[in-house]
Design brief:
alpha+beta, Heat Shock Protein 90, four-stranded antiparallel sheet, 3 helices, globular
Amino acid sequence: AVLVFSTVKLTLQPFVENCINHGLCDDENGINIIIKGFKQGTNIILEVIDDGMGMLPATIAKLALDPEEWKNYGMNNVDKRIKLAFGEGYGISIFSKLGIGTKITVTIPQKGVL
């Protein structure tokens, strides 16, 4: 189980908040948010998945080219803290489709936080 491993504090909170603040299409239909945690090889994978409005392709491209742009979404801080704690091979990735939703993947080593 992934519950025995540690990570840096407030790893998932900004992503859940972003689901609500940026992904909610309308108040009537709401939004579904799924949080997953599992082992993959020697890593722990944490995912925050929503079925909200997703991101524009231009926004995703901008985020992919310049992680500094992530600060507007609260993601930069989380990614930097993970990289500081575990190394450059760890951090977050984003997959999103407009009208479908967004998946944020956090990758950390099984060794847990320092």
